[in-house]
Structure prediction request, 261 residues.
Amino acid sequence: MKRTVSFVVFLCCFMSVALQGIRAEFYGSLPTGLLVLEKKYPYYVFVPPDYSREKSWPLLILLGDRGDEPKELIGPWTDWAKSRGLLVTAVPNLVPERENPKAADDWLLQIKQDLTQQYRIDRRRVLLVGFGSGAHYSAYLAMNYPGEFSAAVLIQGSWDGPFANLMRPVSDKEEQVSFFLAADPQAENSTAVEKQVVNLEEKGYRIVRAPLESDKEFSGLRDQMMEWFDQESQLQAAARQTPGKGWKNRIEKIIEDFFEI
Prediction:
């Protein structure tokens, strides 16, 4: 009996030390500034110099047009992210033009997982920002993996594209991802895109439209999209705090709070 009790005490002590080691590895002192990760398909991450484990940080994932270099894509965002208190990552566009993008999906979701393990990311504030074909892919990701992202910004691209037939809208409004659509109203596919917007809105999706010409300065729109994202985050937080949301939300809240320790 004494041996059994001693073993249980030893096991509890061991698990306590192990958990402390894991948390130190996740949220310890980590590099800040502009970092390049992975050798085969390099992607870039900007971590504000005042990063601290004392709070959770929003994450922006930038998906460029096909052929865009991640380093060039993230460059204009670093000072802005620093002033806003955000982590930003820019990844290469590895999405095939016509084939099923599942392999690219897995690769990008693994990057997101790695970042959330290394840095204290607010899992409720992960924003996709796509450009051109990257916007179309962002629309696909937000539709098919709503649990992974909080919202999506589509710039000069939309649901209209080669992966339109693969997109799976969800009927549960609590699981739907909101969209910020910035597009040229004079574009050739504007009518088709508007039909898609109306169709999604009828299903319950919240979509904000912002006119954007190809030569328009993006800095003002960037602030506008961030204000929208802040408002969406507040709406989602209020919905989670509303009584009577059911056991699913309560369990998700318990799990998220555990990993935020």
